[in-house]
Amino acid sequence: MLTGPGYTSIKAQLLSVPPYAAAALLTVAIGFIADRTRQRGIMNMLISVIAMVGFALMMGAKSPGARYAGTYLGAMGIYPTISNTISWCTNNTEGEGCLSFLSSLSVMLTVSPNRCIQARCHIGFLHRLGKPQWYCLLEHLPRRGRAHLLSWPWYCSCISGPVPVRWIVGAVHPAAAGEPQAPAWRARQLGCGLESPAN
Amino acid sequence: MTCMGLVHNFSGLMAVRFFLGFTECGLFPGIGYFLSCWYRRVEFGVRMAIFFSAAALAGSFGGLLAAAIAQMDGIGGKAGWSWIFILEGLATVVIGVASFWMVQDFPDDANFLSSDEKKRVLRRLAADQQASAKHESFNMKYFWASVKDYKTYLFSIIYMGAAMPLYAFALFVPTIIQELVSVSFFASLSSLLTLCLGFVFRHFFY
């Protein structure tokens, strides 16, 4: 068999294709299912479980093959959650006046800290390409396990987040169930029930 | 992004990264808002999913593309990694300029729809009680309403739950795969995988 750095790096690139491709397929599938069932919150919770299993494998499995299997589950758990959460958020702000501001704000609040991590990712990538000294500032990246362990609390928020959302809404609009045509009722059909009553 | 291929020192890199983040951050919420101006709520999820699956596909093939562009190492006195940023950045610039004409703000002034089609789109949106059925305009009170809304913060927490692992994942997948590639017995496993995929594709597409 062919060996050598060039061969292994192309092979490594090829191996990173299928997990992301599986994630892309599941993202669209979940979008479709969530539209049909109108249960975005529950979809989020289900997919997060897949992601947690994947991250557990990536974090703790001894064999490289099992860790690679974890990347499939991890990707399939992460990507659908993101688009699903955005859809959910947007569904519940449209038609009210706050509109895009709510979704921009929530994306802004969360993406900025993540950008720091992503910058690290880019610089780490340059470093792997064997670039000059000043790229190597972040040479001592945190260990894989540590970062994935850190992801767990966030996953818990992803899973438990929908619960208070539904609960608060239940508390705010208890009467909505009595008027089946009210927007709040429709919103509940969308799996969220966050929408305020008709104005 | 293109300029990132042209920097020569650390401060230059930080400066272009600042502007990259500054100009890029509006894209994702912007797309969400834009799609919501055109589709009903129950149609929105799959559209957003298709948009975001492009991010997953970029993760899928971006590495291969980068590996291919890195072969340009030395051309024009630029290193391979510079060419990655230059070429991928230029593609963004071209699409960005084209989108001035390609992207239509609201259904009621879209010039690619006939007046019948416009009416139909607007009626669908109005039936879904969406504000974009009437032409929207900027108003500072929307901004403050969203700052004061508890939903903003709840969704922020939920979205953090999805976004933090995303970046941890993107950061460590290369490491995990590198560990995998360096293990020799995996060579046979990967060819097995290829065979299985080949079987599945033949099964479904022939």
Roughly what percent helix of chain B?
A: over 70%
Largest interface (CB < 8 Å): A-B, 113 and 94 residues
Q: What can be said about the biggest beta sheet of chain B? A: none
Radius of gyration of chain B: 23 Å
What is the alpha-carbon Rg of chain A in Å? Answer: 21 Å
The average pLDDT value of chain B, as a whole number, equals 72
Strand content of chain B: under 5%
Order of helices and strands of chain A: HHHHHHHH
**Unreliable spans of chain B:** none
Helix content of chain A: over 70%
Number of strands of chain A: 0
Overall mean pLDDT score of chain A? 60
How does the helix and strand content of chain B classify structurally? Answer: mainly alpha
Low-confidence stretches of chain A: 1-6, 94-101, 111-145, 168-199
Shape of chain B: globular
Structure annotation, total helices of chain A = 8
Strand content of chain A: under 5%
How far apart the termini of chain B lie comes to 42 Å
